[in-house]
Specification:
By secondary structure, this protein is an alpha/beta fold. The protein has a single domain, classed as Hypothetical Protein Ychn, Chain: A. Helix content is 35%, strand content 23%. α1 (17-32) links the parallel β1 (2-8) and β2 (36-42).
Length: 119
Amino acid sequence: MQNILIVINDAPYGSEKAYNALRLAMKLKSEYKSEVQINIFLLADAVFCGLPNQKTPNGFYNIETMMKSVINQGGIVKSCGGCSEARGIDNLNFISGVELSNMKEFSKLTFDADKVLTF
């Protein structure tokens, strides 16, 4: 099984980095199903990707919906606890399946990954 870590650094909206990262994660899971493990780590402003109740205009991508799709397909999503704390959101509810994490776990995910992609 291929183990892929996707690191997202940018906020959910304003650039298309989170969108492209999640689009790739969804495609990898749909094409390779049991052949790939997708792990996503949210750093810096990307921790906002893990918040629920995102409202976007019709016709625009919704990061919450995409994140749920990755999780429902077996992807693991971790959000940096330090980054979340620094932004005052560490005590908020996250999307179901998004877990607060830390640098120790991030380093383990990186070490165990066959490929690391950053967005």
